[in-house]
């Protein structure tokens, strides 16, 4: 019985979602990017260009039929590197989100539920402090004091992203904790973990999912900024930010070295933002 | 709750946040693996030299003592010495900070004036072509990340059309005006050097547009929505029925309440402006504190990193404070909601 109702809700949600053309566009973009990233070695025209490859005879070729986005200074096909760049950017975004979302949400649940105790206040004060620095600056600082690697990049971005989830879940939980069903559960002697995860969490889920989608764009952007500046993954692995930085020195003649990676980043950000906006319209949540 | 009580409460909160930020920043940079003294001196240093520098940098003291010594120095304006340029960090900061501030101040002005202005225009001419145009521009502005705006503007106006200069604060060969505030535009105007003012403004256009365009479009969209929503309110209907001219209704009664969400949003944008300056300064080769900070981060120049991040944090908190106060002033309801 419950299954049929759930399926009906999903069908209705999808219908409502598909009413907005832009949201569907966002979904399509994200799906295409995800597939391209997952199947990069098969999608990219010259997959070996993403690694160590040198061919000076083909260097700095403008966009053509053979190389739709041109080649770079070492003769590597830009389009293939961009497709592999999607892979590293999306990996970064997903890794950070998967790490930060549970952590931030649990902290928010605890802090919101125990808002009258010192533990709740402590968590929120720490969250506020992290929120008082601009996230990009925080990520840059953390990345700068650690040796450059993709895992430290993930750590840096995580430190800048977790407070947003905590703050959002906290405000939701504080408004929910005096609802009748919570008080009834408390009176019935139901343990705190059950209340937190079985009663409160499902009511925050839609907001959290919306936030995750919207945050992906920012995380990828911050990741690209980190690599643009030189504090992230090291070459020759193709990162969109690194490609942007490398290409910037060849402006304006070899403009394709910056424009195409830039458009690639744009696609990721726009895709996730549109998808997130669609989810927000659907669930009416997202952020205060 | 009157305005004074609100202000005092906000100020105390801001002070506490500043202290907490300083602790956070300090901890972040001291967690660095490796020995800062050895990094500073390089590979040829002897053990005695490293030990001596460690003593000088108070690295052998416990963390809380190190923090106290550092914070005491900060209050005297002493951020320590840069281990890269060998100058006192405060000297570097004083040289580069005005450039970033000039960028941010102009961006704030553009954001506020153009953002609210576009919003009002779009609401006044709702659904006509001005409104449609502004909405399309708004969507593009928000979707395209700011550093892409920078790169595209640079390519189009700087290189292909050759209308605007491609980097720096002044054209090469033009001397900077006498340093009063550090803002080339103000200093130039104060010394009557109008050529410099014009040149500096030309150099400012693209960076300022790059960092303000995202927030500008968001502000325009929200102002427009606010004005359209509030137009249906009772007191507006009353004003219309009393035959008050439309222009006065819009300017006097509609503007203030509609602008409140915009001002809140501007507050968030202001803080973000400072961090956007990081990339934009790199793209446009702008000699500001962000570019200095990034160079420090790449060189692992601990004292410089700490100083820059602290200053950015202070600016961020300061701007949020200003906006909180502004919102409290504009909207008496928020004042009353304070616990």
The major pleated sheet of chain A works out as:
none
Mean pLDDT of chain B comes to 78
Question: Regarding CATH, which class of chain A?
Answer: Mainly Alpha
Name the beta content range of chain B.
under 5%
Along the chain, the helix and strand elements of chain A come as HHHHHHHHHHH
Q: What's the order of the H and E elements of chain B?
A: HHHHHHHHHHHHHH
Percentage of residues assigned to helices of chain A: over 70%
Residues in β-strands, percent of chain A: under 5%
Quaternary state of the chains = heterodimer
Structure description:
The complex is a heterodimer of chains A (288) and B (339). Chain A has 288 residues and is mainly α. Chain A has a single domain (74-282), classed as MetI-like fold, CATH 1.10.3720.10. Helices cover 73% and strands 0% of the residues of chain A. Chain A has helices at residues 2-19, 21-38, 40-43, 78-113, 118-131, 135-144, 150-176, 180-187, 192-229, 240-248, 256-283. The relative contact order of chain A is 0.15. The mean pLDDT of chain A is 82. With 339 residues, chain B is mostly helical. Chain B is 76% helix and 0% strand. Chain B is built from 14 helices and no strands. Chain B has helices at 3-30, 36-41, 47-56, 63-75, 89-124, 129-143, 146-160, 184-190, 194-230, 234-241, 246-283, 289-298, 302-330, 332-337. In chain B, helix 1 runs antiparallel to helix 13 (302-330), helix 11 runs parallel beside helix 12 and helix 12 runs antiparallel to helix 13. Chain B is globular and about 85 Å long. Classes of the chains: A mainly alpha (288), B mainly alpha (339). The A-B interface holds A 125, 128-130, 132-137, 140-147, 221, 225, 228-231, 244, 248, 251-252, 255, 258-259, 262-263, 265-266, 269-270, 273 and B 17, 20-21, 24-25, 28-29, 31-33, 143-145, 147-148, 151-152, 154-155, 158-160, 271-272, 274-276, 278-279, 282-283, 293-294, 296-298, 300, 305, 309, 312-313, 316-317, 320.
């Amino acid at each position: 019985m419950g299954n049929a109702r759930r399926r009906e809700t999903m069908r209705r949600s999808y219908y409502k979602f598909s009413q907005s053309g832009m949201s569907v566009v966002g979904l399509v973009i994200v799906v295409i990017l995800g597939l391209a990233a997952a199947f990069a070695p098969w999608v990219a025209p010259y997959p070996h260009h993403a690694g160590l490859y040198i061919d000076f005879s083909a260097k700095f070729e403008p966009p053509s039929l053979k190389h739709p986005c041109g080649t770079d200074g070492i003769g590597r096909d830009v389009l293939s590197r961009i497709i592999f760049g999607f892979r590293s950017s999306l990996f970064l975004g997903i890794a950070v989100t998967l790490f930060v979302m549970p952590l931030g949400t649990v902290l928010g649940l605890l802090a919101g539920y125990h808002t009258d105790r010192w533990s709740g206040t402590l968590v929120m004060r720490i969250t506020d402090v992290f929120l008082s620095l601009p996230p990009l600056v925080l990520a840059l600082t953390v990345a700068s004091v650690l040796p450059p690697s993709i895992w430290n990049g993930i750590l840096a971005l995580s430190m800048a992203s977790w407070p947003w989830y905590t703050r959002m879940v906290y405000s939701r939980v504080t408004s929910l904790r005096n609802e009748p069903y919570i008080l009834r559960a408390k009176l019935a002697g139901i343990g705190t973990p059950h209340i937190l995860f079985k009663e409160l969490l499902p009511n925050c889920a839609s907001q959290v999912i919306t936030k995750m989608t919207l945050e992906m764009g920012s995380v990828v952007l911050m990741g690209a900024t980190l690599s643009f500046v030189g504090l992230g993954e090291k070459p020759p692995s193709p990162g969109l930010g690194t490609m942007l930085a490398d290409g910037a020195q060849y402006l304006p003649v070899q403009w394709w070295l910056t424009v195409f990676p830039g458009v690639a980043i744009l696609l990721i950000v726009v895709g996730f933002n549109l998808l997130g906006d669609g989810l927000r319209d659907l669930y009416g949540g997202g952020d205060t | 709750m009157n305005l004074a009580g609100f202000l005092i409460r906000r100020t105390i909160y801001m002070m506490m946040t500043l202290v907490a930020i300083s602790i956070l920043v300090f901890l972040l940079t001291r967690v660095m693996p490796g020995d800062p003294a050895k990094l500073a001196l390089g590979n040829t240093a002897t053990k005695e030299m490293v030990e001596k520098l460690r003593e000088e940098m108070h690295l052998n003291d416990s963390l809380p003592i190190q923090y106290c010594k550092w914070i005491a120095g900060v209050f005297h304006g002493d951020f320590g010495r840069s281990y890269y340029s060998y100058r006192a960090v405060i000297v570097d900061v004083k040289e580069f900070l005005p450039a970033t501030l000039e960028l941010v101040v102009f961006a704030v002005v553009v954001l506020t004036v153009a953002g609210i202005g576009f919003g009002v225009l779009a609401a006044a001419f709702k659904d006509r072509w001005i409104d449609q145009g502004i909405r399309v521009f708004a969507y593009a502005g928000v979707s395209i990340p700011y550093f892409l705006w920078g790169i595209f503007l640079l390519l189009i106006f700087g290189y292909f059309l050759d209308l605007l200069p491609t980097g720096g604060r002044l054209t090469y060969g033009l001397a900077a005006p006498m340093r009063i505030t550090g803002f080339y535009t103000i200093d130039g105007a104060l010394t009557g050097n109008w050529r410099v003012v014009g040149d500096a403004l030309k150099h400012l256009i693209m960076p300022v547009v790059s960092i303000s365009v995202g927030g500008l479009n968001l502000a325009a969209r929200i102002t427009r929505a606010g004005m359209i929503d509030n137009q249906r309110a009772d007191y507006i209907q009353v004003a219309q029925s009393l035959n008050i001219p439309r222009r006065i209704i819009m300017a006097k009664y509609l503007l203030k309440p509609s602008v409140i969400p915009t001002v809140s949003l501007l507050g968030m944008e202001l803080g973000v402006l400072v961090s956007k300056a990081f990339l934009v300064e790199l793209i446009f080769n702008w000699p500001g504190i962000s570019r200095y900070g990034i160079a420090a981060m790449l060189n692992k120049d601990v004292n410089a990193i700490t100083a820059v991040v602290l200053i950015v944090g202070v600016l961020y908190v300061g701007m949020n404070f200003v906006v909180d106060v502004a919102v409290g002033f504009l909207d008496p309801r928020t004042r009353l909601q304070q616990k």
